[in-house]
Specification:
The structure holds 2 protein chains of 2 kinds.
Chain A lengths: L1 E3 L9 E2 L5 E6 L2 E6 L5 E6 L5 E6 L12 E6 L3 E6 L4 E7 L4 E5 L1 H8 L9 E7 L4 H6 L2 E7 L4 E11 L6 E2 L5 E6 L2 E6 L11 E6 L4 E6 L5 E6 L3 E6 L3 H5 L27 E6 L5 E6 L5 E6 L4 E5 L5 E4 L6 E6 L5 E6 L3 E6 L4 E7 L18 E4 L4 E5 L4 E6 L4 E7 L13 E8 L5 E8 L8 E9 L6 E8 L1 E4 L2 E6 L5 E6 L4 E6 L15 E7 L6 E6 L6 E5 L2 E6 L4 E6 L6 E6 L5 E6 L5 E6 L4 E6 L2 E7 L5 E7 L19 E7 L5 E7 L6 E6 L3 H5 L9 E6 L5 E4 L5 H14 L39 H4 L10 H12 L6 E2 L1
Antiparallel strand pairs in A: 1-57, 2-3, 3-4, 4-5, 6-7, 7-8, 8-9, 10-11, 11-12, 12-13, 14-15, 15-16, 16-17, 18-19, 19-20, 20-21, 22-23, 23-24, 24-25, 26-27, 27-28, 28-29, 30-31, 31-32, 32-33, 34-35, 35-36, 36-37, 39-40, 40-41, 41-42, 42-58, 43-44, 44-45, 45-46, 47-48, 48-49, 49-50, 51-52, 52-53, ...
Chain B lengths: L1 H5 L25 H7 L1 E6 L8 E4 L8 E6 L2 E6 L5 E6 L4 E6 L5 E6 L3 E6 L5 E6 L5 E5 L7 E6 L3 E6 L4 E7 L5 E6 L6 E6 L3 E6 L11 E4 L4 E6 L5 E6 L2 E6 L5 E6 L6 E9 L9 E8 L3 E6 L4 E7 L4 E6 L5 E6 L4 E6 L5 H17 L1 H9 L7 H5 L23 H7 L3 H9 L4 H13 L3 H7 L5 H12 L6 H14 L1 H6 L1 H40 L1
The chains are: A mainly beta, B alpha+beta.
Protein name (chain B): U3 small nucleolar RNA-associated protein 15 C-terminal domain-containing protein
Subcellular location (chain B): Nucleus, Nucleolus
Pfam family, one (chain B): WD40
Chain lengths: 814, 543
């Protein structure tokens, strides 16, 4: 089982002491990257939920720089201590509460005065408090203190409570802690000798807007905070009154007047507050340089701004191309890292602000206006090479290797500079890879401004080498006039593609006039329209080729039309689904066709091509279908509602929808296997040919192991496993399930129901019904059959007779 | 934003605004050869009295290029450089054929009265008058290797061989049974010539033969009335034109038909020999047969590959063609009294450059002293040149060359768009007169949601007028109409008050209205046509 596609930018990364490695929180593990090559060198696996914080134990002496120890905190309620050079876990502290943020000031404290070895280390953590009912009333999240040496929470020391999990920020020498709470900042001073009993002194600073990020000056008492409107506040000399007092806290705020402390609000304990404003939108990152001369800030617009702290002068590193999230300094002053929202971490050379290396993870899903009601999720799998093609926000397509868990290349679909702040006006609507991965087809839509300039564009790409670099072959402007494209499918073994549109027609595109792909022909011969077809002017909502490419199935809303793609002849019509069909797929080497329809009465139906009728159907909302290329099984990703019933797309109560993957043998309606998954909405499924070398060597394994099953969830995290696996592999599947959905196991518990019927699925229809309509060859023969005295009057017969003479075939050869 | 310019380390590259791609024909028609033939910039010489049955270029040896065109009762000389009329010779009747002597000093002209006159080309004085044909003479020619004799043929079906000086017929060749319309003298043998006649035959005559012209040496049947006949440069093959076809014959093989080219739609009227390729270059110059016909097409035929390599259409029936001896000027006569004269743009090509280079080398060798002096001029510290030393150095053979990143060349509108000065970008590109770019900028503005705002902000005086002018010109172009028609409506809606106030803009709107009306008419007639055709297609698809 292979997992991957994790988010690298959920939490700030950390450099190791020698700056040779970068520790990145990636899902349930910590990925260790080499800063020289930008490649992953190790992974700290063990946490059972999202890792939220990683802290490298700093080197106290120059000699100890090679030491590689770190603390990690996770939502599974454990804090772990690792040696990441080996890598192995040394200790685990279980505090039973999900940790959202953690700082350990004492690590940095005994840098300064390393007096006694036996100092207890305390961590300050932001945890989700859910054990007591009364806490829930006050606020869900608490900042607490944790004794790491004794592995327990310090009782009664709840520093703050809030509604949302917040990042705890620590000054570089570990003596100050800060937490933002909406429009307020809480700042604590950590005593140099910390113990469980010590009460921390606290001040609060106020602002009129919601604060987003804070940073402490490394040497002076200066605090910078960014807010949601893009302003940066600089408080100087904060806490002079409170923290300077030797003992107790005297409320000295009565002495402070506005004249003395310009810009400071109310009774806040600070000398002055200045505001810098450059960012047009929310500030996401703030960081002082290690000497304190500069302040770096960044936000949604993707420009890193370097402020001179004393003068407020600016320098820019523009066009990073994605919102900036985190900034991390390395112990080596010559470079640092920027985390971007598109799952990339850039290593930046410091004084010159050049980008040295980029660590790029899988592109994250992004929000864009919904163009079509169809199922094109913008994810396409290359079954042979194990690649997946994903849309990115910067109008490109990323090709990502599932086996290697790294990006292969990016194809710029639309040549335009992406500005992260701009409204999305150009959307890459679909990405389709051909079966052998040598061709790519993309479609994009430019949204109109006030009804002007709507444009649909279809682009065909070909790859010259196996490396996944595609170059443009053909652009088709407005392939179906101004109607949107509902589906694009490639012919399994020829240079042929079909695009179907909501405008009521589909087009068959060919390149090299249908020469088999094996023969090496000149690659830059363009694609031309081979034929156009339509069925009763109905919107064409889905399309699929049969595995041998001889039959093309196109869904015209509720009916499925079968075509001969070469001659463009309507072969047969299979009717009639209840709601418009959104996805079609032929099932491997069987005579079945699967369709999925959405709407108020969603349906998963299997049709037999032999007698042109339904075999069986379920009332399920299917998010994705994948059929195995060489067996008669297919898988469907089914969305479940909260109550365990049928998912209703209209209810928007929850943002993550749980789902089930059902593996069917197409002949029978009982699922062969069931897996439950999280974040299923927007997920994708595929059968991938296994290409790992150890599988190849053991050739005596059964044939089913050659194909792996891939599931990618809404956050583009994916897992590869063997669907027909042996006992051990099934165990690993359940293990993965328990990792991905720990609190769900009691709720659903489908794993115990392998091979059995699904009780919660209602309204199963077993009765196949016959086809309501398919073209008869000679209808006039039946009209006049029978004795003449039984025939209806000629005036009644005239209509049907003439109708029979009319053209039934709607295909037009071009 | 000034600082944004200085950083070149940005991650995302700068993209230019690109116009939509134009669709290209599947097979690129521009081969090297068709590029050559279409490089003749065609000019039309008009206002000649009647059809041009014959055009002749003066031979190469006579300095400035001149060509003569027979035109009604006169023979007009044109300059091959600028196609201006140089001089005119008036004859008594309609001139049918003319021929320069090989040295270009004399020209013979045949007319409908049956006489042939010989003029000097310089002073245009008539020297000789050859009278023997009883019917109109259709063909006269000086043999290319002979200055003393003439060959002529006419409607009396007799081919005559003249001694020009004595104004006497040396031989009468009788054998044709119908009008003799054409002929050609062998390029390799002074006494041999071909004649073609309306009796479908082409006959080869030899003055030196024993039977004294009673019988032709060779005879081939073209199958159609022969309009033109031509020897190929080797003298061993010849081409005949008649009906819709051009046929190639092998003389050494006893008049064997080699190839028949039938791509003209109407009668082929004239043939001529064209040269392609550089003279004296590595690729030896290749000969082509150029044929023109009444269908208005000029076709270029490669008789080595037996293939038509270029085809070109003129808007009139063509009846004569000639190419200058250097191959750089082409003249085609039509039946309606105009000449399509074309001249190739001769580049100051490589030979000249080579020559220059050679000259330079010679100079370098000669001026060894100066080179030495240059070597001695070592740059010393303290001068400005010292800091620049070595910067102009070229990379040596084995050096590893660090390629400089390609710089994207940005047009003015790209730069303005980069600075988010949208309206100025639109105005800048409107001033550039390239509709493709204008539409591309408009599309980019749509993507930025700024087009409407730009239209609102345009100044009434110049800028709005510029936009209206553009819309008037291109709103009905099918490629852009989907965007531009909508934009036109929007502009009229948004700026109605400004347009009403300005007289110039009102004029623009009136023009616009006219072009839209025109477009509607076109659409209607197209729909009518579709209505006629679609039932036919329906029936055809049923088969």
């Amino acid at each position: 089982m292979i997992r991957g596609g994790r988010n690298y930018v959920s939490s700030p990364p950390v450099f190791s002491n020698d700056s040779k490695r970068l520790l990145v929180c990636a899902g349930n593990s910590v990925a260790v990257f080499s800063t020289d090559t930008g490649l992953q060198v190790a992974s700290l696996d063990g946490h059972a939920a999202l890792v939220t914080a990683v802290i490298v134990v700093p080197a106290s002496t120059p000699g100890s720089k090679i030491l590689c120890f770190c603390w990690t905190a996770s939502l599974d309620g454990t804090i772990r201590y690792w040696d990441f050079a080996v890598p192995e876990m040394i200790r685990s502290v279980d505090i039973k509460l999900p940790v959202h943020s953690m700082v350990i000031p004492s690590l940095f404290n005994h840098l300064v005065e390393k007096s006694e070895k036996a100092v207890k280390s305390f961590a300050y953590i932001c945890v989700e408090a859910k054990e007591e009912a009364e806490d829930r009333a006050k606020g869900l999240f608490q900042v607490r203190k944790c004794n790491l040496t004794d592995a327990r929470l310090v009782g009664g020391a709840v520093l703050a409570e809030m509604k949302k999990p917040e990042i705890i920020t620590m000054s570089s020498c570990g003596e100050l802690l800060g937490v933002r709470r909406k429009r307020k900042l809480d700042i604590w001073k950590v005593p140099s000798t910390d113990s469980g009993r010590t009460v921390l002194k606290k001040i609060t600073l106020h602002h009129t807007k919601a604060l987003t990020v804070i940073a402490f000056h490394p040497t002076e008492r200066i605090l910078a905070a960014g807010d949601a409107t893009g302003r940066i506040m600089i408080w100087r000399g904060f806490g002079n009154k409170t923290f300077a007092m030797a003992n107790g806290h005297v409320n000295g705020s009565s002495m402070i007047t506005d004249e003395e402390n310009p810009g400071v609000r109310g009774s806040d304990d600070a000398e002055s507050c200045t505001t810098w404003h450059w960012h047009p939108a929310q500030v996401n990152l703030l960081s002082f340089s290690s000497d304190g001369a500069y302040l770096l800030s960044g936000g949604k617009e993707g420009v890193l701004v370097v402020w001179q702290v004393d003068t407020g002068k600016k320098k820019f590193l523009p066009r990073i191309g994605s919102p900036l999230l985190h900034f991390t300094d390395s112990p080596d002053p010559s470079f640092s890292s920027i985390s971007c929202a598109d799952n990339q971490i850039h290593l930046v050379r410091r004084p010159s602000m050049e980008i040295l290396k980029s660590i790029s993870g899988i592109k994250l899903p992004y929000s864009h206006p919904e163009i079509s009601k169809g199922m094109s999720s913008g994810v396409s799998f290359d079954q042979n090479a194990g690649l997946v093609a994903l849309r990115t926000e910067s109008y490109a397509v990323q090709l990502y290797s599932l086996f290697d868990d790294r990006g292969i290349s990016e194809v710029q679909v639309y040549e335009r500079n992406h500005q992260p702040v701009d409204e999305v006006t150009i959307v890459v609507t679909s990405v389709v890879l051909s079966l052998d991965g040598s061709m790519l087809c993309t479609s994009e839509v430019r949204l109109p401004e006030d009804g002007l300039g709507h444009l649909v564009c279809l682009k065909f790409w070909f790859s010259k080498s196996k490396a996944g670099d595609f170059s443009l072959s053909t652009i088709v402007y407005e392939p179906h006039r101004d109607a949107g494209i509902s589906a694009i499918v490639f012919h399994p073994n020829r240079r042929m593609a079909v695009s179907s549109s909501f405008g009521g027609d589909f087009k068959i595109w060919t390149s090299n006039s249908g020469v088999p792909m094996k023969e090496e022909s000149q690659p830059n011969s363009g694609w031309i329209c081979h034929a156009v077809g339509s069925y009763k002017k109905k919107p064409m909502t889905a399309a699929a080729f049969s595995p041998d490419g001889s039959v093309l199935a196109v869904a015209a809303e509720t009916v499925i039309t079968l075509w001969d793609p070469d001659k463009n002849l309507l072969v047969a019509v299979i009717g009639e689904a209840i709601m418009p069909i959104v996805a079609l797929s032929f099932v491997g080497n069987s005579d079945h066709l699967v369709s999925a329809s959405w709407g108020s009465k969603p349906q998963l139906a299997v049709w037999s091509l032999l007698n042109l009728s339904t075999c069986w159907s379920y009332r399920l909302h299917v998010e994705a279908i994948a059929s195995s290329p060489d067996s008669s099984s297919f898988a469907a990703l089914v969305l479940l509602s909260d109550s365990g019933g049928v998912y209703d797309p209209n209810e928007k109560s929850h943002k993550t929808v749980d789902g089930l993957i059902l593996l069917f043998n197409s002949a029978e309606p009982n699922p062969v296997a069931v897996w439950s998954v999280k974040k299923a909405k927007g997920g994708a499924l595929a059968f991938i040919r296994n290409q790992s070398s150890d599988e190849e060597s053991s050739s005596d394994q059964q044939q089913a192991a050659q194909t792996l099953f891939a599931y990618m969830n809404a956050d583009h995290e994916y897992v590869l496993f063997d669907p027909h696996g042996t006992e051990a592999e099934e165990l690993s599947v359940t293990r993965w399930k328990s990792q991905s959905s720990p609190e769900e196991s009691g709720q659903v518990g489908y794993a115990s129901l392998y091979g059995e019927l699904l009780p919660p699925i209602p309204s199963r229809k077993h009765t196949p019904w016959s086809v309501p309509s398919f073209p008869t060859e000679r209808p006039w023969e039946t009209i006049f059959s029978g004795p003449s005295h039984n025939l209806p009057p000629l005036t009644l017969l005239c209509g049907p007779f003439l109708e029979a003479l009319f053209e039934k075939r709607t295909a037009v050869e071009e | 934003m000034a600082q944004t310019e200085q950083t070149t380390t940005a991650i995302s590259t700068t993209f230019k605004v690109k116009p939509k791609l134009q669709s290209k024909p599947r097979n690129p028609s521009k081969t090297l050869e068709s590029k050559y033939w279409s490089s003749f910039k065609s000019t039309r010489i008009e206002n000649l009295v009647s059809s041009i049955p014959s055009i002749e270029f003066s031979p190469k040896s006579t300095g400035r290029g001149v060509f003569a065109a027979a035109n009604s009762a006169s023979l007009t000389f044109f300059s091959a450089q600028d196609f201006s009329t140089v001089s005119t010779i008036s004859c008594s009747d309609v001139v049918t054929s003319c021929s320069f002597r090989s040295d270009g000093a004399l020209i013979a002209a045949a007319d409908l009265t049956g006489q042939i006159r010989v003029f000097t080309t310089k002073s245009r004085t008539p020297l000789r008058r050859l009278r023997s044909h009883t019917r109109p003479v259709r063909f006269v020619q000086y043999p290319s290797l002979d200055k003393l004799h003439l060959v002529s043929g006419g409607d009396d079906a007799i081919v005559k061989y003249w001694d020009v000086g004595a104004e006497a017929v040396l031989h009468n060749f009788q054998g044709h049974k119908d009008y003799v319309r054409c002929g050609d003298c062998s390029p390799v043998d002074a006494g041999t010539f071909l004649t073609g006649s309306y009796d479908h035959t082409v006959k080869l005559w030899d003055v030196k033969a024993d039977n004294n012209g009673k019988k032709p040496v060779l005879e081939v049947n073209h199958g159609k009335p022969v309009e033109d006949v031509m020897f190929l440069p080797s003298g061993l093959m010849f081409a005949t034109a008649g009906g819709n076809s051009v046929k190639l014959w092998d003389l050494t093989g006893g008049g064997r038909l080699v190839h028949s080219m039938e791509s003209h739609n109407k009668t082929v009227t004239s043939l001529c020999l064209g040269v392609i390729g550089k003279e004296g270059g590595e690729e030896a110059s290749q000969y082509r047969i150029l044929s023109v016909g009444l269908d208005g097409y000029m076709k270029v035929f490669d008789y080595a590959k037996m293939k038509i390599t270029h085809s070109m259409r003129f808007p009139a029936p063509l009846i004569s063609i000639a190419i200058s001896p250097d191959g750089n000027t082409r003249a085609i006569g039509t039946s309606n009294g105009s000449i399509f004269a074309g001249k190739r743009k001769v580049k100051k090509d490589d030979d000249d450059m080579e020559q220059d280079a050679e000259y330079g080398v010679l100079k370098g060798l000669g001026n060894g002293e100066e080179a030495q002096r240059r070597l001695q001029r070592v740059v010393r510290p303290g001068s400005f040149r010292y800091f620049q030393r070595g910067q102009g150095e070229k990379a040596k053979e084995g050096d590893y060359l660090v390629a400089r990143g390609k710089k994207v060349k940005l047009a003015e509108h790209d730069k303005l768009l980069k600075k988010f000065r949208h309206k100025e970008a639109l105005v800048a590109v409107l001033g550039k007169k390239d509709p493709e770019n204008v539409v591309a900028v408009m599309e980019e503005l749509v993507a930025r949601r700024k087009l409407i705002k730009c239209v609102m902000n345009l100044e009434v005086e110049g800028e709005l007028g510029l936009l209206m002018g553009f819309l008037h010109k291109y709103a009905t172009v099918p490629r852009h109409s989907r965007l531009l028609m909508g934009l036109t409506r929007k502009v009229l809606e948004l700026r109605a008050d400004d347009i009403r106030a300005s007289e110039g803009l009102k004029l623009c709107v009136r023009n616009l209205k006219r072009s839209v009306d025109e477009e509607i008419r076109i659409q209607q007639s197209l729909q009518e046509m579709q209505g006629i055709i679609s039932p036919l297609l329906r029936i055809a698809s049923r088969r």
